[in-house]
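Dissemination and training. As part of the outreach component of the grant, students in the summer workshop were shown how a complex can be specified as a set of sequence lines and then modelled as a single object. The example used during the hands-on session is reproduced here so that future cohorts can follow it. Participants entered these lines:
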Amino acid sequence: AQKVTQAQTEISVVEKEDVTLDCVYETRDTTYYLFWYKQPPSGELVFLIRRNSFDEQNEISGRYSWNFQKSTSSFNFTITASQVVDSAVYFCALSGFSAMNTGNQFYFGTGTSLTVIP
Amino acid sequence: DAGITQSPRHKVTETGTPVTLRCHQTENHRYMYWYRQDPGHGLRLIHYSYGVKDTDKGEVSDGYSVSRSKTEDFLLTLESATSSQTSVYFCASRGSGGDQPQHFGDGTRLSIL
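and obtained this result:
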């Protein structure tokens, strides 16, 4: 079964603190892809990053970094020196593909609501 | 960003009335999806499409139907709306290939009184 778990429902941090959002996934596919999305208070869903199962290199983009570890089935997201504009709901998602699956479906976690307090 | 538009953006209607939400994409994406988002539940898949006239159910499909007569359009219909279907509805599309992200429309806020 495919599943994404984001155990942290809500997190609050004070501005400039670092924060890590956890994402744990389950899949039987050998090839799969992981994604993070941001949903700010305005409501739109914004794609942030994609990672494939063969690439375990960490990625850094400005204050954002992602740590992918197959050994623990995790794809965690860290925001360094958080800012008020980082306040949003963040979703982790998994995409796999099998011959039985004509939908090429995504599996979303339930999201983590991050509040950055000024 | 992928061009995905949803209409209407807001709708208020009464219990028992039919409602159709529209999703239009300009990216020639093969796959399209309808989700609902409710507090505490994240995004829940209602139906999805893997090609023209090819659709399948998601985890919360009861009370909803979909149609896709053209690549660019994906309609979600509530045949007889109920108050439990009050929600924010998102449409998404993605290209072929497991590495392709889903791109979302801006959502439709639907209230059923």
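Chain B has a mean pLDDT of 93. Students were then asked to discuss how this feature might be tested experimentally.
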